[in-house]
Write a structure and sequence with these properties.
alpha+beta; two-stranded antiparallel sheet; DNA polymerase, domain 1; 2 domains; five-stranded mixed sheet; binds FE2/S2 (inorganic) cluster; Ubiquitin-like (UB roll); 9 strands; about 15% strand
Length: about 210
Amino acid sequence: MNKRADDSPEGVSRRHFLKGAGAAAAVVTVAKIPSVTEAGQEVSDDPVIVGPGSIPIRLKINGEIREVEAPPSTTLLDLLREHHAMTGTKRVCDRGSCGACTVLLDGRTVDSCSMLAIDAMGREITTVEGIGTPENLTDLQKAFVEKDALQCGFCTPGMVVSCTALLNQNPTPDRDQIRQGIAGNICRCGTYQNIIEAVEHASRKGGK
Ligand code: FES
Ligand code: FES
């Protein structure tokens, strides 16, 4: 079963912090911030007080270590889109209810709009840019095309990320399991049936 960021026991913030940050722009955060070496190894540090100014935020995204300076109140979604120009991850509700911003954190789905980027330090982040390429689509992405599993396409990156996580965890999901796998993703165009067929198609091909 997939897990959303608000369920995580780690970190200091999530939605309560984000709400507070919205009310008061200048805040400091007490956080456990692991560092990540060039080799991608984690080194746990003691909790530190950071902010409200920018701090270095070093993340492992799609296998690459990337670092930018940003306030510790920056969400993972903002960091991806505004600081790394990784706009495949979409912003729709910006409040953890639609799944358009879904990314994988250590292989599990999270709503990147609802977690702080600093809480993702030391973890493996996978965005839709790290799942196939236009020249080399995954079987699941090909199945989305073949089964016409999109209309406007705005929910599609989040759907692809969630369905990829589902097939990673369960290569042969039944229809109920597929529905459960995309339960956190809203498609306003209503392409659910085609998405389910796409996942089944990719599953039959043994792909992801
Ligand atoms: S934009 Fe994050 S859940 Fe909707
Ligand atoms: S295809 Fe338009 S929101 Fe899903």
